[in-house]
Write a structure and sequence with these properties.
Helix 5 runs parallel beside helix 7. This protein has two domains: 190 residues, 3-Layer(aba) Sandwich (Rossmann fold), CATH 3.40.50; 59 residues, rRNA adenine dimethylase, C-terminal domain (Helicase, Ruva Protein, domain 3, Orthogonal Bundle). The protein contains eleven helices and nine strands. The radius of gyration is 20 Å and the shape is elongated. It is α/β, with parallel strands linked by helices and 267 residues long. It holds the Pfam family RrnaAD. This is Ribosomal RNA small subunit methyltransferase A. Belongs to the class I-like SAM-binding methyltransferase superfamily. rRNA adenine N(6)-methyltransferase family. RsmA subfamily. It catalyses: adenosine(1518)/adenosine(1519) in 16S rRNA + 4 S-adenosyl-L-methionine = N(6)-dimethyladenosine(1518)/N(6)-dimethyladenosine(1519) in 16S rRNA + 4 S-adenosyl-L-homocysteine + 4 H(+).
Length: 267
């Protein structure tokens, strides 16, 4: 890019530019020829071009129209680049995979930090159509994603992602690797959706509703936090202490609660 793009605060843009971190995340993704790679927020193309060179084709989802012409021009000699001008939260990844005849797609991207959690939840909704995901995120978010029960940062994001994926933090990236530098450390993370036989059979919406209610007021016991959904006796029948707090429960504890709630009178 002859004239680097000016990052836009409205899009939460922090362009990755330090080559050693670009190489590390591309190596972690390890794209293969023929992979259907989808990059969220390609920006100036720091990851796009090496991923495209390895896979031969790539689909990029970009909301900033000012970045698209240069990205297409630079990619023309590298491989087959398709750009979807859209808000990623409105992209149906399952339909995208089917439309291109791909069994599953591979997601990658340096996600805008201000909407990273909504993007993660959106991706999880399409986990069956996704082989893996490699994202750059605020390190604090990656810590929450991988947190274990009992941790201070264990919460709704931890539970919902771990019920759908294996979460593997990869490496930390300092602010200076981006333009402009964010005020926090970043981290790369790998998410691998669980196979069908590894996934729980509870209604995902019920699970999410229970998890959201349980963590809404972290200091409350489950019996208080889940009032209107499950009473203390029902919580105990699921093998969970109704006096416990949400952050002490494993992801599968929430599945058992959701299954019990599904069979409650009135359903």
């Amino acid at each position: 890019m002859d004239h680097p793009a000016r990052p836009k605060k409205s899009f939460g843009q922090h362009f990755l530019h330090e080559q050693r971190y670009i190489e590390r995340i591309v190596a972690a993704i390890a794209p293969r020829a023929g992979d259907f790679v989808v990059e969220i927020g390609p920006g100036e193309g720091a990851l796009t071009l090496p991923l495209l060179a390895a896979a031969g084709r790539l689909t990029a989802i970009e909301l900033d129209t000012d970045l698209i012409p240069d990205l297409k021009a630079r990619a023309a000699a590298v491989g087959e680049l398709a750009v979807i001008h859209a808000d990623v939260l409105k992209v149906d990844f399952t339909a995208l995979a089917h439309r291109h005849g791909a069994e599953r797609l591979r997601l990658a991207g340096n996600l805008p930090y201000y909407i990273s959690s909504p993007i993660l939840f959106h991706c999880v909704e399409h986990a069956a159509a996704i082989e893996d995901m490699h994202f750059m995120l605020q390190k604090e978010v990656v810590d929450r994603m991988a947190a274990e029960p009992g941790s201070k940062v264990y919460g709704r994001l931890s539970v919902m992602l771990q019920l759908a994926c294996r979460v593997e933090p990869l490496f930390t990236v300092p602010p200076g690797a981006f333009r402009p530098p964010p005020k926090v450390d970043s981290a790369a993370v790998r998410l691998v959706p669980l196979a069908a036989h590894e996934r729980h059979g509870a209604d995902p919406q019920r699970v999410h509703a229970l998890v959201k209610a349980a963590f809404a007021q972290r200091r409350k016991t489950l019996a208080n936090g889940l009032k209107g959904l499950l009473d203390a006796e029902a919580i105990a029948r699921a093998g969970v202490d109704p006096r416990a707090r949400a952050e002490t429960l494993s992801p599968l504890d929430f599945v058992r609660l959701a299954e019990l709630e599904a069979g409650a009178p009135g359903d």
